[in-house]
Amino acid sequence: MRILHVLAQLPKKTGSGVYFTNTVQYMEKQHENAVVYGVQDGIPIEFAEQTKQYPVEFKQGTLTFPIVGMSDEMPYESTKYSDLTQEMISNWRAAFLKQLETAKEAFEPDVIISHHCWMLSSLVLDVFDDKPVMLINHGTDIRQTNLNPELFENWVHDLNRADKVLALSQKDVAPISDIIRKRISKNPLHHLFHHHTMNCSIMIRHLIQLLQEVTCLRIGSHDILTHEVIIIQFFALSFHGFNI
Questions:
Q1: Cα(96)–Cα(6) distance, rounded to whole angstroms?
Q2: Contact between residue 177 and residue 160 where contact means Cβ atoms under 8 Å apart
Q3: Could you give the count of Cα atoms lying within 13 Å of 50 in the half-sphere of its Cβ?
Q4: Averaged in consecutive runs of 10 residues, what is the pLDDT profile of the chain (244 residues)?
Q5: E strands within the chain?
Q6: Which residues, other chains included, contact 239 with Cβ-Cβ below 8 Å and sequence gap of 6+?
C-alpha cells in the first residue's frame, strides 16, 4: 500500500510532529510511504531513504515567514494563524498545493493521512478527491477554529468528505464532529474514533487482517480504512501526554 502522510508544520518537537514521524517510521516496515511537511532553517528531518519527501520550505522564496504553528507558542520560531495576511495565506496554500500535486502525480498514493482538521486538510481533500483520506484531530484544530472563525469560514471546507476522522480523545469527539458538520456536503460524516483507547491485542489482530487484505483496497472501502485507523491508534498510546 502507498500511503501519503501530510502535516503543515515540522515533523518533530511537538506532540503531533512526533506522532507524525513515529507513524511514518512504523508504516515504513510494511508499506511505501511519502511525506509532505513544513521545514525551515535547515533543520534535519529523518525518514527512511525509501520514503519520498515533499517538504515545504519556509523562510525562503515566497514563504518569507516562519512555519505557521497550530499552537500560538511553538518550540521553534513560528507564525500565528491569526497573524496571516491574505498574501501570506495565498503563498502558503500555493506552496503546499504544489507539493501535494507533485506527490499525487509522482507517488500515486492509495491512502492519504492528513494531520489536524484545519486548513491544510481541507486542501488535501480538494487535491485527493478521488482517494480515501483520513484526518487526525490533535486538539489544537478545535482551538484554532474557535480563535479564528474567519479563517475557518474562508479556508476550511467540507471536512466531512474524509473517509475517516480520528479524535484526540473521547472528549474531543463532540467538538470535532460539530466542526466537521458545520459544512455539509453531499457525503455523510463517517466514523470517528478516539485514538487513545483501543486495546493493543485488537490493533494487532486488525493489522494482520489488513496485511492479508491489502490487495483488496478500493476507493471508498471503509473496512480497509478502519484497519488503517487501528494501526495509527497503536502509536497514539505512546504519546498521550504531549502538548500538541
A1: 10
A2: no
A3: 11
A4: 95 90 87 96 94 98 97 94 97 98 97 94 96 89 94 93 81 82 46 38 39 34 36 38 31
A5: 2-6, 32-39, 52-57, 111-115, 133-136, 164-167, 192-194
A6: 15, 18, 19, 22
3-state secondary structure of 164: strand
Q: Which of 237, 10, 210, 7 is nearest to 110 (CA)?
A: 210
Candidates 3.40.50.2000, 3.30.230.70, 1.10.443.10, 3.40.630.30; CATH matching 2-239: 3.40.50.2000
Domain ranges of the chain: 2-239
pTM above threshold 0.85: no
The residue with cell 488535501 is 124
